[in-house]
Amino acid sequence: MPNLFVCTICKNELSRIEACLSSFSWADEIVLLDSGSTDKTLELAAKYTDKVFINLDWQGFGIQKSRAAELTNNDWVLSVDCDEIVTESLRDEILAQLDKISIEQVIVLNRLTHFCGQFVYHSGWHPDPIVRIYNKTKYSFNHKLVHESVNCGKAPRLQLKNKLEHYTFEGLDKYLAKRNGYAKIWAEERFKKGKSASSLKALSAATFAFIRHYILRLGFLDGRVGLLISVIQMQYSFNKYMMLAILSSQKN
After folding, report:
1. pLDDT tens for residues 239-250?
2. Which residues, listed in sequence order, are joined to residue 86 by a DSSP beta bridge?
3. Residues 77 and 192 in one domain
4. Exposed e or buried b for every residue in 148-164, given b needs 16+ CB within 10 A?
5. Domain range for 50
6. Do 39 and 12 contact (CB within 8 A), yes or no?
7. What's the pTM value of the predicted model, to 2 decimals?
8. How many CB atoms lie within 10 A of CB 86?
């Protein structure tokens, strides 16, 4: 069976780092790349691994995750975020597949998000298949500032059944602030590529975002949380395009 090294990036993850790292005690090695924590994140992380590194040259999530993978001493990498947990059932499934996989293949985990006190099974949030296990001699993360992914093209994918649990919610105020930050990054990236938008585009994108998440993606089946997610997605879409529209108007 190939060795599997877990790598994660972090900054000020005091409330979540232990739950994450403790769920990987079975891995051959854990590598953590920090980007400047000022709380006790690194102190807690040291209980689970001595492979703790710091890189303050932040250039986005994609590049930082690629850096973390390069710090491992093994070709097979499982990349996780600090708000994610591998359950025992998923661990067993991963280990069962490792001795069968070729270096050309990647392993897809189905992420299940816990939000506002419940797991979300619809609303466009589930199923949420993401490539997280790959051979770094063949593949790596793209260089997107946010919403990064493993750049593996049409690589053969092995989809696992058990869930990667995702605990993204630390309070509505923090979550909304994070989404606003993502919208700003999105607008700036598009603006640099010569893209533009308008107020009408922002309004139409917001309207469709609500319809897509609440109706087409069955958000209403998630109850109150499904409605909240749909409204947040509507606001996020509006913010993205309106920020881009403002940047475009300033250029002119």
Report:
1. 999 999 999 998
2. 164
3. no
4. bebbbeebeeeebebbb
5. 5-167
6. yes
7. 0.91
8. 23
